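Predict structure. Chain length: 589.
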Amino acid sequence: MIQASPRSAVSSSFSRPLARLAPALVPALLLLATACAPLSQATEGPSPPQASAAQGQVMVSAANPLAVEAGLEVLRAGGSAVDAAVAVQAVLGLVEPQSSGLGGGAFLVHYDAETGTVSAYNGRETAPAAATPDMFLNAEGKPLPFFQVLLSGRSTGAPGAVAMLHMAQAEHGNLEWRQLFGAAERLADEGFIVSPRLAEMIVGRAPQAKSPDATAYFTKPDGTRYQAGDRLRNPAYAATVRKIAAEGPDALLEGEIARAIVAKVTEGDLPGVMTLEDLAGYEPKKSEALCRPYRIYVVCTPPAPSGGPAVLEGLGILENTAIADHPNSAQGWYLFTQASRLMYADRDRYMGDPDFVEVPTEGLLDKAYLTARAALIGPMAGPAPQPGTPRGAGIRAPDTTREVSGTSHFVVVDAQGDAVSMTTTVESIFGSGRMVGGFFLNNQLTDFAFAPINADGTPAANAIAGGKRPRSSMAPAIILDSEGKLLGAVGSPGGTSILAYNLKALVGMLDWKLPVQEALALPNLIARGTSYAAEGDKFDPEVIEGLTARGVTFTSVGGEGSGLHGFMVTPDGLDGGADPRREGVARGF
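Prediction complete.
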């Protein structure tokens, strides 16, 4: 039984960087349902995504119904949004291990209803202290094959998701940390029903699914692989979450599990250079959220090395267009594609870890610069746009980073009106394919540029270095009104496509005034360089015809791997949604 305890004192508070926006108090939301049964059937399989609807004033939207129910169980017991986020992540790492987990990293944006502040938490993995710029190069100085590095111990960074959540929960939690892992422990001990998406990944083409550790985990006693509807137990995971519940992040970063992680990443060809000191020295970071006005709204994301600055630049470019006047039309989508191309050109050239390189965030988000970038959008699509020269930009090499999909996103709103928007990942499908303590290790270091220096000697902003965090596309967002009151949140997985997915959802929700579920379900279109990757079968033929007339031709067809989750505050309650492309649901009370 979860017992409520007093909210922990907030050790520090960070206000939005918009001086003209005074922090506003948000009245505490009333808890409409107080007598709800605890999670009893913890092994249910996922149900179909729910339609968008006003669902009370407390909500969780995440990629698996079991994780959603774990979060709601915490909220029913009086837990905060961050308390629920801990429970959601613990379950996602078990039932959706292809996407995130205890061995990965995350970014979290938190809205505090009492103070009106928005804070960003950085749980991105870090490179080992002994990492060198040439660690992904062969003897001839050429980049090693991507999947050779991915499957090696050299791909794993010090995990940060659990440490980041522990930091946020210490400041914004209502319950005790040890009370937040019951659902994950039950599911791991008793077994959970394998979902169709997990079953697909188990037999998919990702090489990690065929690794020795994944093969041992996903193979039944009869020698066949687990299928949708099978019950999968993971007692090692149960033991790990019990240890984390008792000891906090030290359970992962020190002691027995830490030694097992170091042993695992130093095995085999291309061994990693991670040490126990790298793990013990990991520290999450808290900062002000990066907030910028967008029309009558304010959108807040984490700062670099997240993808937040890029999404805000995309919005800033679109603010100089008439996209709001062209909902779901050829002209609206055309403006979206051209703003996306400009956004990606800048992001790919300039973004990295600001603790190691100068990142020209202020220059990229300067109103005059955004106006100038938007002016490059003509009536017809032209060649791939070049990076601009924002204020503070140094000379950077063209980017060679290859960022793959394998991530999850969720949002939470609690009874006090606090909100969490969190994107979390082990990087690729099942991370590096290596397991410790029932969970997969990340391959996050492959998010660095394999070629650290261009032929002309200019350095890449995203080159690897000891202690550095790789650039990320993860960009969880919280939306405020002009007075600083909570309006919504959104985010998505999807590798580099996250930027386009989030931008699409924000346009749909804020410019085209669509219900959340409809905005998330809009066709995906990723415009980057000369490529226009799209779900062509989901667009109206008239839209495709109009885009073709403007010089936009889809270069690929079929579904893109988004997993958007979000909500908006309405007069009737919370309007939540979950991407129909995955197995998520939005539920509340």
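Summary: Residues 3-52 have pLDDT under 50 and may be disordered.
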